[in-house]
Amino acid sequence: MPDTSKWLSRLTSARENATVPAAAAPRPRPAPETRTDPAGAVPWAVRATAAWSWRLLVIAAGGIVIGYAVITFQTIFVAVLAAILVAVLLEPVATWLRRVLHFPRALASLAAILGTLAVIGGLLVLAGRSIVDGFGALADSAQAGFQELQVWLTEGPLGIDDTQIEGWIAQATDQIEANSDVLVSGVANVTGSVTSVVTGAVITVFVLFFFLKEGRSIWQWFVRLAPRGARVRINEAGIRGWVTLGGYTRTQILVAFVDAVGIALGALILGIPLALPIGVLVFLFSFIPIVGAFISGAVAVLVALVDQGPGTALIMLGIVLLVQQIEGNVLQPWLQGNALSLHPIAILLAVTAGTGLAGILGALFAVPIVAVINTVMLYFTGHDKYPHLATDINRPGGPPGALEAAISASWNKETENDGAVVDDDSPTSAPDDEDDDPAATRPDATARPTASARAVGAAGPEDGEGR
């Protein structure tokens, strides 16, 4: 039998010599949940959604207020927009008159406006005379075409009786007589619209004169309302929006001119009357994207159909389609380049929304407004479409780095006009006659000019302005 005493003694000594592990430290009990911060219990996604929601509601409310103001003061709003579009075209003319012919600022602005009105008036007079001269022949052609249609309906494959045709004519006459009140009210509405157009035209010319004469000062007045830290970015974004607007407007005018000349020449070659009025109509409607070309082309084809029949109308339709294809696929992509950077879907939606909100005027202004907003938002998000403007001293709005000095000079000028005492070291503005040298406002890279020198340089040239 084995000796168990030794085995038991070994086991006992092993137990005595074994290290007893230390007891694990007790885990701290979690503190009771506090409810002092209710926002902490809301998930992050819900808080982010709520933050975006109230901001979007504020933006929507602001948009509604702006839309209501635009509808209420539509005549003034449209006049200002039209003045801006014309100012971006006439600003180079006014600048040339000041620099080359040394016209005073007011005289240069007035001469540019009067010259433009003279050109437009001359075109309208020529178109009016052409309409008067060709209306008689067109009416005779329309009457002859109607008689041919009547003969075809009675003696052609349809075999319609003359009595039935006369009954249709009598029904149409009765409908016109029954709706005479509607026609009279329509004439009254047209009269009111003409009055509104004349009023808007007068306001446009008045605002245009001051945009050309004091455009940069007006823009700087708006910029200085912003906080000091945001002024430079707002000014730079506005300059880029102005360049975009100028590129769009000049491109549209050139494209409209090519369309008008092409279609008018086609009508003239085919011997269609009213070729010049058709060209003027095509030129005007070309400023309405997408739908304008369709309407003006349809008018040209309709005149050809009435005057010379379906064969000539088909040829005229081919000429219209050819001109529009060249314009849409060659001219606009080549001329516009990156002036718009808008997708065709965005242009279509903008035109549709503008038409729904303000009719033909909305369709006219929708695309340039969207193009300017697109350029400004791209600049604010770090995507500058015109990086060369950062160093161009001849850019619209003045050379880079001269904004604050110009704003200081404008404040000082207002103080002087109010009769206040001005300190000798405060900025002073330069006379308007000293604004023809762009180098006068070039920032000095080697030396820091004094406050007075900066003010004189910045408040000097308004050449190349437009705003």
TrEMBL record:
Transmembrane portions of the chain: 52-70, 76-94, 106-127, 190-212, 253-276, 282-306, 313-335, 347-380
UniProt biased composition (Acidic residues): 421-438
PANTHER family (UniProt xref): PERMEASE PERM-RELATED, TRANSMEMBRANE PROTEIN
Organism taxonomic ancestry: Bacteria, Bacillati, Actinomycetota, Actinomycetes, Micrococcales
UniProt superkingdom: Bacteria
Alphabetical list of Pfam families matching this protein: AI-2E_transport (PF01594)
Subcellular location: Cell membrane
Annotated keywords: Cell membrane, Membrane, Transmembrane, Transmembrane helix, Transport
Biological process terms in GO annotation: transmembrane transport
InterPro entries, sorted: AI-2E-like
Membrane topology listed for this record: Multi-pass membrane protein
The organism of origin for this protein: Georgenia yuyongxinii
Ranges annotated as biased composition (Low complexity): 14-26, 440-455
Similarity-based family: Belongs to the autoinducer-2 exporter (AI-2E) (TC 2.A.86) family.
A Gene Ontology term for the protein's cellular component: plasma membrane
UniProt-recorded name of the protein: AI-2E family transporter
Region feature Disordered, mapped onto this chain: 13-38, 413-467
